[in-house]
Amino acid sequence: MTVQRDSAGRIVTDRLRLRQWLDTDRVPFAAMGRDPRVMAHFPSLLFDAESGELLNHFGRAIEASGSGMWALERLSDRAFIGFCGIQPVAIGSPVDGEVEIGWRLARNYWGQGYASEAARAALVVAFDEQSLTRVLAITVPANAPSIAVMQRLGMSRRSERDFDHPGLPHGHPLRPHIVHEIAA
To answer: Model-level pTM greater than 0.85?
Structure first.
């Protein structure tokens, strides 16, 4: 897989473009947030206003630092398919301040290798451009598809770093979080 920057500084792989968010991403991004299958491993669905706030947050982070959770665009038809990127953890957990990789794709794009391809590109930015020494991935134990992506990326489970999400109450089924890690 090739990873390069285009003339506008966007990250391009064989099939994807990782880019800044556009206004045209708002409707498909909000649809992802309302999809119960896409959001199965999150505490709740996102209303349109919440999706809009999250999209704005992602865009501001990219403007400020040059990286973050980029919008994913399929090159063949310029379709918005989801997001992927790297960002500092900031949820009040033991791994706060470290950099995590994350992704979320609209259901129509699952099972086609897009999450792995985008994540590999994000890791190139993390290690080659930002000179990070390690990147974490965090999810709930039941999120088998994301765990499979982590394994395909060569990430290792770091069970000693697992934690309970501080924003969820004791006994909540999504409170336990597991940590995977990859080093440069």
So the answer is: yes
